[in-house]
Amino acid sequence: MYKLGSKSTKELEGVHPNLVAVVKRTLELTPVDFSVHDGLRTAADQKAMYRKGASQLDGVTKKSKHQKQSDGYGHAVDLVPYYDGALHWEWEPLFDIAAAVAQAANELGVRIRWGGSWGEITNTDKLPRELNKEYVERRLSAGSKAFTDGPHFEILL
Q1: Distance of alpha carbon 109 from alpha carbon 92, whole angstroms
Q2: What is the C-alpha end-to-end distance of the chain, expressed in Å?
Q3: Which pick of 53, 115, 136, 146 has the fewest CB atoms within 10 Å?
Q4: Mean pLDDT on 134-157
Q5: What's the CA gap between 27 and 107, in Å, rounded?
Q6: Rounded to 10 degrees, what is the CA torsion of 35, 42, 114, 147?
Q7: Running DSSP on this structure, what letter comes out for residue 14?
Q8: How many other CB atoms are there within 10 angstroms of residue 124's CB atom?
């Protein structure tokens, strides 16, 4: 079983307690270690992500779920695979983490939306790989670009 490192623990400060519980349970279930790369963000942090093209939300006119919400908590985390001493962004381990998040969230009764499909990954029998493929195909067939964010998970309240 994996453990949260000090950086990951720090990133979870200010994140909704139900989402923190899902992350902790996910660590018990996942076959892939991960780091909590981002939890709560300031407006300046979010704006920087937007400028880099890593987010479609500027943090000012369009607020991210990573920013403090009306209940005082951030509602999103980015879980990035960690192995061989480094963070990795490949899809295979992201699918494994997403499946473990879905299982953990279902066990805890928490609804989660995943950036790999921009839809709910809880309360479905579909695997993350299938959800991702359907999302990409749906966007492309509509003549739009697919913006996928495999490490991103947000709580649905």
Answers
A1: 26
A2: 29
A3: 53
A4: 96
A5: 14
A6: -110
A7: T
A8: 14
The 10s digit of each residue's pLDDT in 36-75 is 999 998 888 888 888 887 788 777 888 889 989 999 999 9
Q: pLDDT at position 61, please?
A: 80
Gap between the Cα atoms of 134 and 141, Å rounded: 10
Q: What share of the chain is helix, strand, coil (3-state, %, to 5)?
A: 40, 20, 45
Classified as helix, coil or strand, 34 is strand
Please name the residues in contact with 134: beta carbons below 8 A apart, sequence gap of 6 or more: 117, 126
Interacting residues of 54 by C-beta distance below 8 A, sequence separation 6+ = none
CB 117 within 8 A of CB 130: no
